[in-house]
């Protein structure tokens, strides 16, 4: 008995195979696109915004200690401080650094670094530091180091204008829009 | 240049059996000493390196990076990290995040005993077995929280200075005014954890009257170390510092470098004393053969040929002593446990250590022959032939 199954051929290749290949190609292309758009994944090389560093100091900055108490989540803020508060205040691969209140005294007596303020009680340090980060359009920190850029280093005194990303009685995170480097504490 | 036959050197070794035996013994002792020093350094290095995992990150209190035992971080750090940091390794939905307390304590055999048993206690949750894959249960079971139960590592008895049988399943130790029962034994070969005592985290928090943790150990999956570092800088309220586990143990190795230097210096000084003592012995044996050496020169053998022959004798003796010392090291030094502040490690006599001993022995044999040989050959032939 002859089989009633017919195999439609196009140029010697079964059409079904061609359709399957095309579908696979579409699926793979879609997966690659989805991969690139997934949270945490970025498209192309990342760089800091060109207007991040400004030459004029933003007006009416708050000291870090005061900002910790007075700022509100989601509101604009201008904050002034000194980069420090821990032995390494810069994240190695992200645009994040720690800003400390200018009142915290640098200490070189037995401390690993002057800017970790080891002579000051830990609770006092924790109450007078804030996290400054440069974020992308999705609010995620840019994966590009900011240490050394435009002279930014530990003990640099900066004024940052931006938005309060997170704040409670225990921490403050600011998304920076502009950074003014005013100098360095000696 | 015509050299003296090799069997001449070999037959000369039998001139004085006592001297031969003593020289071999001296060589063996020096080689064993050098091997012991090398095994000490090698054993400590291996225990610290093997203890670390390249995929692990330790979160400790900022400022306590060099000593986990001094670190105190909030008790909710582990759950916050697990919830906030994507890319941590997971298995069946369980993140590889282990909250831990590490504390050095003094335990007692029982309530009334004055004996002090020093131990390193680690308070853990079941996730500890995920982040420390070298830890394997070998007997009994994991302690149940709230029942004053503990499990002990394979070298915990060495750490406490008691026989292994003292820590068998069902035995008890006294700590924090109550008895703790050993319900399990584990091995973590080659790591510092092998000398620890593990207890449920909550039980140890109660016993040490703290609600903080010493550290959180996590294993990276898709995340990398920089992601964890960035997290610590975003959550300054937690006061965390991130360390690669390999870097943490490397810093401990550096801390012990002065100890290593002291061990090596001691070994070298004693080896030098051994060499000088050997020199004295060889001087005496060559001095007794001045006439023979003069005769060899008059027969036409050059000074260099005679030096080569004398050196062969010395190296042969040293080689025999090196062999004895190496076997002694393998049998009696390898695997011997040594206590230090972080726990216990075992002396390791591996190929590197044996090579150090071999080099020390051969150098000793070579150097030991040259000054006496030179002294004997300085004499003119006529004077040498007249010597008594």
Helix-strand pattern of chain B? HHEHEEEEHEEHEEEHEHEHHHHEEHH
What is the SS-derived class of chain A?
A: alpha+beta
The amount of helix of chain A comes to 10-25%
Lateral strand order in the biggest sheet of chain A: 4-5-6-8-7
Tally of individual domains of chain A: 2
Q: Explain this structure to me?
A:
The complex is a heterodimer of chains A (186) and B (388). Chain A has helices spanning 15-37, 64-70, 122-126; strands at 9-10, 13-14, 62-63, 76-83, 96-100, 129-133, 156-167, 172-184. Chain A is an alpha+beta fold and 186 residues long. Chain A starts with 8 loop residues before the first strand and ends with a strand. Chain B has helices at 6-12, 17-51, 77-84, 128-131, 156-160, 201-207, 225-234, 245-255, 257-287, 290-298, 303-333, 351-377, 381-386; strands at residues 56-61, 90-91, 94-95, 97-107, 117-124, 136-140, 149-153, 172-175, 178-187, 197-200, 215-219, 240-244, 337-340, 343-346. Chain B is elongated, with a radius of gyration of 29 Å. Chain B is built from 13 helices and 14 strands. In chain B, strands 1, 4, 5, 6, 7, 8, 9, 10, 11 and 12 form a ten-stranded mixed beta sheet that branches. The A-B interface holds A 39-40, 85-87, 89, 91-94, 96-98, 116, 118, 122, 126, 129-131, 133, 141, 143, 168, 170-171, 173 and B 62-63, 65, 86-87, 226, 229-230, 233-237, 239, 241.
Write the layout of secondary structure elements.
The complex is a heterodimer of chains A (186) and B (388).
Chain A: E1 9-10, E2 13-14, H1 15-37, E3 62-63, H2 64-70, E4 76-83, E5 96-100, H3 122-126, E6 129-133, E7 156-167, E8 172-184
Parallel strand pairs in A: 3-4, 6-8
Antiparallel strand pairs in A: 1-2, 4-5, 4-7, 5-6, 7-8
Chain B: H1 6-12, H2 17-51, E1 56-61, H3 77-84, E2 90-91, E3 94-95, E4 97-107, E5 117-124, H4 128-131, E6 136-140, E7 149-153, H5 156-160, E8 172-175, E9 178-187, E10 197-200, H6 201-207, E11 215-219, H7 225-234, E12 240-244, H8 245-255, H9 257-287, H10 290-298, H11 303-333, E13 337-340, E14 343-346, H12 351-377, H13 381-386
Parallel strand pairs in B: 5-10, 7-9
Antiparallel strand pairs in B: 1-11, 1-12, 2-3, 4-5, 4-11, 6-9, 7-10, 8-9, 13-14
Helix pairs in contact in B: 1-11, 2-8, 2-9, 2-11, 2-12, 9-12, 11-12
């Amino acid at each position: 008995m002859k089989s009633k199954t017919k195999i439609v051929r196009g140029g010697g290749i079964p059409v079904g195979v061609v359709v399957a290949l095309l579908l696979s190609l579409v699926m793979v292309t879609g997966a690659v696109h989805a991969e690139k758009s997934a949270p945490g994944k970025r498209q192309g090389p990342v760089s800091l915004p060109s207007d991040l560093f400004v030459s004029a100091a933003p007006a009416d900055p708050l000291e870090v200690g005061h900002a910790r108490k007075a700022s509100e989540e989601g509101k604009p803020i201008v904050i002034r401080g000194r980069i420090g508060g821990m032995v390494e205040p810069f994240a190695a691969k992200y645009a994040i650094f720690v800003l400390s209140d200018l009142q915290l005294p640098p200490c070189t007596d037995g401390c690993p670094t002057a800017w970790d303020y080891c002579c000051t009680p830990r609770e006092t340090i924790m109450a007078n530091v804030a996290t400054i980060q440069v974020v992308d359009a999705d609010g995620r920190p840019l994966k590009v180091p900011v240490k050394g850029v435009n002279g930014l280093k530990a003990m640099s005194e900066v004024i940052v204008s931006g938005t309060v990303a997170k704040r409670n009685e225990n921490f403050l995170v600011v998304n920076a829009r502009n950074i003014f480097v005013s100098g360095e504490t000696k | 240049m015509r050299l003296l036959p090799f069997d001449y050197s070999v037959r000369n070794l039998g001139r004085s059996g006592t001297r031969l035996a003593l020289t071999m013994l001296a060589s063996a002792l020096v080689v064993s000493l050098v091997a012991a020093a090398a095994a000490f350094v090698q054993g400590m290095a291996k225990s610290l390196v093997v203890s670390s995992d390249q995929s692990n990150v330790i979160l400790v209190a900022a400022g306590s990076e060099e000593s986990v035992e001094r670190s105190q971080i909030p008790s909710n750090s582990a759950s916050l990290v697990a919830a906030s940091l994507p890319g941590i390794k997971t298995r069946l939905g369980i993140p590889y995040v282990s909250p831990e307390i590490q504390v050095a304590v003094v335990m007692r055999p029982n309530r009334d005993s004055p004996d002090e048993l020093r131990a390193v206690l680690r308070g853990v949750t079941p996730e500890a077995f995920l982040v420390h894959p070298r830890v394997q249960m070998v007997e009994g079971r994991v302690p149940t929280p709230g029942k004053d139960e503990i499990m002990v590592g394979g070298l915990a008895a060495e750490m406490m200075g008691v026989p292994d049988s003292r820590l068998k399943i069902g035995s008890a130790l006294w700590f924090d005014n109550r008895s703790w029962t050993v319900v399990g034994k584990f091995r973590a070969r080659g790591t510092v954890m092998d000398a620890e005592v593990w207890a449920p985290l909550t039980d140890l928090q109660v016993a040490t009257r703290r609600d903080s943790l010493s550290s959180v150990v996590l294993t990276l999956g898709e995340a990398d170390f920089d992601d964890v570092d960035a997290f610590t800088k975003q959550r300054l309220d937690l006061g965390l510092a991130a360390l690669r586990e390999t870097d943490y143990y490397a810093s401990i190795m550096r801390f012990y470098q002065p100890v290593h230097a002291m061990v090596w210096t001691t070994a070298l000084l004693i080896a030098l004393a051994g060499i000088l003592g050997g020199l004295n012995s060889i001087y005496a044996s060559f001095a007794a053969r001045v006439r023979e050496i003069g005769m060899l020169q008059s027969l036409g053998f050059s000074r260099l040929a005679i030096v080569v022959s004398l050196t062969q004798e010395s190296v042969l003796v040293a080689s025999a002593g090196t062999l004895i010392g190496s076997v002694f090291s393998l049998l009696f030094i390898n695997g011997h446990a040594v206590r230090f502040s972080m726990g216990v490690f075992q002396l390791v006599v591996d190929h590197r250590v044996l090579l150090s001993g071999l080099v020390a022995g051969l150098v000793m044999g070579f150097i030991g022959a040259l000054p006496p040989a030179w002294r004997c050959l300085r004499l003119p032939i006529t004077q040498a032939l007249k010597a008594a």
